[in-house]
Amino acid sequence: MGFEVRRRLSAADTVTLFNAVVGFVAGAVAFADLQFAARLILLAVIADAVDGIVARNGDSSAVGPLLDSVTDVVSFGATPSLFLYVALTNEYGGFETAGPLVFVGVVLLSSAYVVCSIIRTAFYSTYFDGPDERPGMPNTLGSIIIATAYLAGVTHPLVLSGGALVLSAAMIAPFDYPKPGPMHAIPMGVVQAVAVVAPTAFYRIGPRAMLAIALLFFALGPRYYWGE
């Protein structure tokens, strides 16, 4: 029967695959320009939201949820970890220049995020079926915090890595995160778009506003927020 890719993929899946491409490019660009990579991570988050909207409007496929999960690990697990790796090696040196212990520390710090992202995605897909079961912080939220923090001026690699460790633990923490409803998701998307298009405009108001929103949701979401 074959893969029958054209017949089995939906419009939402096309947006999901675009998200994967943007996430991959962000990881590659990070080695040359961390600020541009951070903007691309936020663009991937926007694409992730768009594919959800398209899927909820009826243009979905049987393979869509799996594609979405795999893409999330690429764009919001592997890419942020590569981002952190580059930030750390720019400061402390890479494999050829840093000492063995320093390099091992860099690898452990930067890879913790992708490892926890993989664990959360695998456990979520295997053990949780209900729409109200959303254990652990979504890796998209962690990616927003890492990217907007850098664009807002928080660029010290140890500060970024320390924050990423907290976010990594939150991804496998035993509490549920709600999904933002359209009333909140749309304004957040607008602020995020400003951070992508003009990250330095008006004293970095776009990324700083998005960072504040994301941190509030990270801290208060499990207790005080009601989504759809």
Q: Which structural class best describes the helix and strand composition?
A: mainly alpha
Helix and strand element order:
HHHHHHHHH
Strand content: under 5%
Q: Low-confidence stretches at least 5 residues in length (pLDDT < 50)? A: none
The number of helical segments is: 9
Mean pLDDT: 89
Helix % is: over 70%
Please describe the biggest sheet, giving its number of strands, its sense, and whether it closes into a barrel: none
| N-to-C CA distance | 39 Å
Count of beta strands: 0
* C-alpha Rg (nearest Å): 17 Å
Task: Give the overall silhouette.
Answer: globular
Fold blueprint:
Elements: H1 5-8, H2 11-29, H3 34-56, H4 64-92, H5 100-127, H6 139-151, H7 157-171, H8 182-197, H9 201-224
